Amino acid sequence: MVTLYVEGGGDHEIECRKGFRIFLEKAGIKGRMPRIFACGTRNEALNDFTEGLNRGETAFLLVDSEAPVSLEHQNGDPADWRPWDHLKDRDAWTKPDKIAALSTGVELHAKQKIETTLKDATKDCVPKGAYGKGAHSFKILAELSPSKVIAASPWAKRFIDEMKKITA
Amino acid sequence: MLIITTHSDVLVDAMTDQPDSVLVAERDENGATLTRLDHDKLKPWLEDYRLGKLWIKGGIGGTRW
């Protein structure tokens, strides 16, 4: 069983898991669908992921990059990119030892100013009101076209490619 | 013996101290399975979460999504 530990989902765990599940299915992930673990905060995601590794799981961690990833960490073949170096620089996170022994990894996506823009664009919407990350983001995730996301983000492509490989 | 089926995280929470009493029912392309929870394996997580919360987060299976 592959487990995907995702940052987010706080008090919206079911919506979070549903959004990711539908997105992954639409992206062509079939067969051994990963178990999706809605971790909540960023640090909780790292803790839960580390516990998963300690339990012997094949575990993946999906977290926001929170800031643009330095070009030096994403040079050449995507398989050789170094997301943990980014997390070390930004969060002072240490790469768990067991990652080297297992087929595990971390994937990043940059949210930049998307949230602010969405809130601004929807501030006058009635009755749903302005965009809220917890309430609306996972419904939007389920509606997204994976092919468009992959075309827009090489990190998303890397993530989906790795998911397909490990769940085949 | 009393057997209860539930989708209530509150009821599952009540089993936090005895997760071995819980069987998780799941279905995949190979059919249905029943898996008994393992207290020792869950122990580190149960120091952080009640069992029902761990279930809702997706940590023990038995979820549709």
SSE inventory with pairings:
The complex is a heterodimer of chains A (168) and B (65).
Chain A (H helix, E strand, L loop, with lengths): L1 E6 L5 H14 L8 E6 L1 H13 L3 E7 L18 H9 L13 E5 L4 H8 L11 H11 L2 H7 L1 H14 L1
Parallel strand pairs in A: 1-2, 1-3, 3-4
Helix pairs in contact in A: 1-5, 6-7
Chain B lengths: L8 H5 L9 E6 L2 E6 L2 H8 L4 H7 L8
Antiparallel strand pairs in B: 1-2
The helix/strand series of chain A, from N terminus to C terminus, equals: EHEHEHEHHHH
Percent of residues of chain B in beta strands? Answer: 15-25%
What is the structural class of chain B? Answer: alpha+beta
Q: Classify the helix fraction of chain A into a percent range.
A: 40-55%
- Please give the most extensive interface between any two protein chains, plus how many residues each contributes: A-B, 20 and 13 residues
Counting structural domains of chain A, the number is 1
- Report the major sheet of chain B: 2 strands, antiparallel
Average pLDDT of chain B works out at 94
Strand content of chain A: 5-15%
Which consecutive residue ranges of chain B, at least 5 long each, have pLDDT under 50?
A: none
Write down the Rg of chain A: 16 Å
Rounded to the nearest angstrom, the distance between the terminal CA atoms of chain A is: 12 Å
* Biggest beta-sheet profile of chain A: 4 strands, parallel
Short structural description:
The complex is a heterodimer of chains A (168) and B (65). Chain A is α/β, with parallel strands linked by helices.
Tag the structure with descriptive keywords.
heterodimer, A: 168 residues, alpha/beta, 4-stranded parallel beta sheet, 7 helices, 45% helix, B: 65 residues, alpha+beta, two-stranded antiparallel ribbon, 18% strand, globular
Write a structural description.
The complex is a heterodimer of chains A (168) and B (65). With 168 residues, chain A is of the alpha/beta class. Chain A has one domain. Helices cover 45% and strands 14% of the residues of chain A. Chain A has 7 helices and 4 strands, in the order βαβαβαβαααα. Chain A has a 4-stranded parallel beta sheet, sandwiched between helices. The longest helix of chain A has 14 residues. Chain B contains 3 helices and 2 strands; from the N terminus they run αββαα. In chain B, a hairpin with a 2-residue loop joins strand 1 and strand 2. In chain B, strands 1-2 form a two-stranded antiparallel ribbon. Chain B is globular. By secondary structure, chain B is an alpha+beta fold. Chain B is 31% helix and 18% strand. Classes of the chains: A alpha/beta (168), B alpha+beta (65).
